[in-house]
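Could someone model zinc ion with this protein?
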Amino acid sequence: MTKLLFRDDAYLRTALSSVIAHTGEGGILVDASVFYPTSGGQPGDSGTIKWDAGEMEIATAVKGPGETVVLVPAEPAGLPPLGTQITQNIHWDRRHRLMRMHTTLHLLSVVIDRPVTGGAIGTDRGRLDFDMDSPLEDKSEVEETLNKLIACNFPVSSEWITEGDLAAQPDLVKTMSVAPPKGAGRVRLVRIGEGENTADLQPCGGTHVINTDEIGPIKLGKLEKKGRQNRRVQVLFA
Ligand SMILES: [Zn+2]
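Reply:
Sure, complex below.
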């Protein structure tokens, strides 16, 4: 198993780890990872690794077998040998933009109260697909409400519940296409706001900003019809 350092602290940019294995595709399986692996619509982190005898660019990270993370080198040659201690550094500016956009999409799923069928997070824009058979009635109203929620400066935190408790509260699951992140019988919930002032609470394994004030103003982009029952809503940083 890989220790998922980004899950406990999304603001961690660097860490020491060991090389556990090389994958057949030229990837580096590590015992602990600051790099978020591509999943749930959020792309894997890029960055660099350094060790005594070398350094290399990491293009992205992906999930490996079991609960593992594999770093994918930009050039699949000269990998650090098994057992090597490496220092990981992620490209923080890119990751922080992904965290801002990811948190924005949670709030978009609050403003548009329809089941989410898919989504994608980018550094400049993000989108969610909603199970919706008619177009958004008022785009500017959605944009305004979303900006108001962001400006509430909500704290963002995570907590764990048992899979049994989640099964008893199916309303918590808004995203139909992504299975809740599970591990050892527990599910991680991400809360935006606190107590009675909670704007959103849903299972998520991604990385989020610690307060919505880090997001800044956004605007709605393209609205597209994707199939009979699907509406795609794009968000951009203003
Ligand atoms: Zn999330």
